[in-house]
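Box 3.1 A note on notation
Throughout this textbook, protein chains are presented in two layers. The first layer is the amino acid sequence; the second is a C-alpha cell string describing backbone geometry. Keep the layers aligned when reading.
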Amino acid sequence: MKRKWLGMAGLILAYILAGCGMTAGGMSVSADEQTDGTEQEPEKEEEEDSGMETTSWEESVQKMFEDPYGDYRETGGEIVLLTDGPVEDGGYNEAVYNGVRMYALGAGKPFSYYNANSDDPESYRKLIERSAQENARIIVCAGNDFGEAVGAVQESFPQTAFLLIDGVPHDGEGEALALSENVHCVLFHEEQAGYLAGYMAVWEGYRNLGFIGGKEEPAVLRYGYGYLQGIDAAAKDLSLDDVVVKYWYADTFSPDIAVREKADGWYAEGVQIIFACGGGLYESVLEAAENQDGLMIGADVDQARVSDRVLTSAVKNIGAAVTDTLDSFYANNGWSEAQAGQVRRYGVEEGCAAIPVVDTEWRFKEVPTTHFFEIYKQMKRGDRAASDDISEPPSVAITVNYE
C-alpha cells in the first residue's frame, strides 16, 4: 500500500519540482502564457464514465499533507528541521517546513522538527547535537542564526548531513568558515526579488517609499539593497527626480512596538508604502499601515492573503528549493560531489525570485502583468541585473535617508 502511494507522490514531486521551476505563486508560468492579472482557468476535460474516482493535483497534494502514513514523529525523525520559532508562522519558517514536509511525506521518510530559543544562543547547538545523537540522517537548519552552531559541530558528526538554508557556517564573530563535506548550503538571490518589488512599486506611482529590515544579516541586506536598485532603475526609466526612500534596520525579527512606532511615524510623514523585511516584524508594520491608511510589501512568501494592505511581496521559492535539494540528496544517497561542502544560490534563473503573479490577487492598478513579465524576462536574460554586493549600500541616484 505504501509503495502505491509513493508512486503518486513521485509524480506530484516531479510536477512541483522541475528544478525550482516555479514562479512565486506556486505554479510554473511563462511570460508568453500569462498576459493579464487574471488566473487562467484550465480547460475541463470530458469525464469518461470509467467507474473510477478521479483526483485533482490539488487534492493529491492536500492528501499528502494529511500524513496518512504517520511519517511525522514527535522525536527521532530521519529528517529533522530546526527553526528558531513556530514552524507554522505564515512566513519564512512555514515555507521551509512545507518544503521538508512535502518531500518527507512524498518519499515516505520519517521527519521531526524542533524549535530553538532565539533568546538562548546555546539552544541552537544543543538541538543540533540532540538531533545527531537521535540518528538524524539529515538536519535542515532554517536561517542564518544556525550558522554558528553548524560551524561549531559540523566536524563532530561526520555521519550526519546538514542542510543550512539562508546561511553558511561561521564563527562567533560572523566570519565564514570552511564547509565540511557533510554540509550543503542553500542561499537565494533576494536582491532580484527586492529589485522587482521596488521597480514595480515606483511604476505603480509611489514616490515616497520605506524599507524596514530585521537584523543586518546577508539575506535582509540583499533584499534591501535590491529594493533600492529596483526603485532607482524605475526612477531612471520614468525620468523621475522626486523619489525618496526611508531606510532602517530594527535589529529584530519579531513584532515590536518600536517597529510599529517607526512605521507609524513614516506613514504620518507621507511614506506611502513600506517593504517589511524580517520574519514577524511585518505584523507591526501592517498594524501601522492599517492605522495610517498605508501600504506594505511583504517578504519571503506571498503575504497578500494576510491583508489587503499588502500590495505585493518580494518572494523566494524556499519550499521548492528545499524539496529539490532533499530530493537530490536522497537520489544520490548523500551529498553529490557538486553539493558536498558547497553553496548553491537560487534566483530568477531557477524561477525562485520574483513577486507573486499566479494563485494570488494582482493588486497593481497601473502595472499589467505583461510589463512585469517583460522586466522579469530581461533579468532572466541578463539584460537587467541587480548587484548582490552587500559590503556597502548601492550607489543610486534616488534620495535614500538611512536612519
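The chain has two domains: 2-23+61-180+318-349, 190-315+354-402. The longest strand covers residues 183-188.
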